Prior knowledge:
Layout: H1 2-20, H2 31-89, E1 106-119, E2 125-138, E3 143-157, E4 163-183, E5 186-194, H3 200-203, E6 224-236, E7 241-250, E8 254-255, E9 268-269, E10 285-297, E11 300-312, E12 320-332, E13 336-348, E14 354-355, E15 358-367, E16 381-391, E17 397-408, E18 413-425, E19 433-442
Antiparallel strand pairs: 1-2, 1-19, 2-3, 3-4, 4-5, 5-6, 6-7, 7-10, 8-9, 10-11, 11-12, 12-13, 13-14, 13-15, 15-16, 16-17, 17-18, 18-19
Helix pairs in contact: 1-2
Amino acid sequence: MKIRSLILGAAAGGCAAGMLVPATGSAAVSEEAFNALSDMVSKQGQALEELKKTHEQDQLVIQQLQQQVGQTSQLATNAEQKAEAAAQSQTVYQAPNPAQTTTHNFQVIGDAEVQFGKSTGQNPTFVLADFAPIFLFRANDNILFEAGFDITLNNNANADGTRAPGSSTTVSLSFAQLDYCLNDYLTLCAGDILLPLGTYSERAAGWLNKIGDDPLVRDWLPGSGIGARLQGALPVGQSGQMVTYAVYVANGPSSGNPTNGFANAGDLDLGGNVGDTPNWHANPSGGGRLAWFIPWKVHYDLELGVSGQTGEWSDNRTHLWSACVLDAALHLGPYFEAKGEYINTWFGTDDLGNLDPHGLWVQTSYKLAGLKRDWPVINNLELVARYDNSDDAQGTYTDRYTVGYVYYFSNTLLFEGDYEFLKSHGPNALPPQMWMLQLSYGF
């Protein structure tokens, strides 16, 4: 419309100019006026040409945009058709048959160790070959089962402690428990349950322990017991802190070899009460653990816990066995760890009265990779140190100092070496020195 208006305007202008010049006086028009009029008409023609070019370019742009819109619309239509076709062809699977998925819910983990060592007064020898599988089965999201075994090869021994010909393999059940998750904060465990007396039995035994033998004072606590436990955790605030808790009932210790109906100190059996008939005593033991976990950044955390157990242990139901454990664990980055426990037990006897064996252990470790050096062998080493003492309340007192290392061939293949210095006094004194090497594999 603009181009037409300009053309009509130019034509009208030309006509008006012609009308303003009389025909009879055309010869009198000066050459200068004629040239000015001619130049004006020429410029109007150029302007018209430029407007035509601009119009043609605008039409070309409009056509390109129309083509792009058409292509986009076609792509959207194709995508919609493909999605609809895929939805129509989607296979609807039936719920899986539990019998067909059993192997996917079953897993075997565990560890194996072999030890070579020497203590004062003895020859160096391979002292241990142990295989400890753990079987895990998940029936569904709420029901799980776990069981652990210890399979150990030992030299045969006579009743008096002297060596007998040959060797034997012992198979012992470490634990076997059914776990039922009641909700996000509470789980019921029943069977031969791990007892939450401290944290060592659940978190540090076997190849997870960075030293080849257990702390001395752990021998005074049962690792598991037949019973039931409720456990869980509650978050505290938004910083990652939480309170963990556990309460349980279990058969508890028993009189392993009662003497004429009396409960003497030597009769205490921490792991022998599995509910045989007749029952060893009428009432089960009860216990629990309460702990506070405090993280303040990644790999930096502190955990403090207190646990205990009490209940009958003698067949005549006249004596109690009780224990109290304080535990702590500290991590300062991914390279440094410190942990330990203080353990106090007490029980009544007919021959020695009330006894209170007690002791503690503290262990630290540092991975040399924390030095941030390009040392291929050194970076795989972790230095370990432990101090533990024990007082059996029957005249034997022991201090033990252990230094050692862990070399990581991988995260699960470990080569450990330890040297122990002991100061032991009493009727059950231990040898003053001992060293051991251990190859451990966790799977």
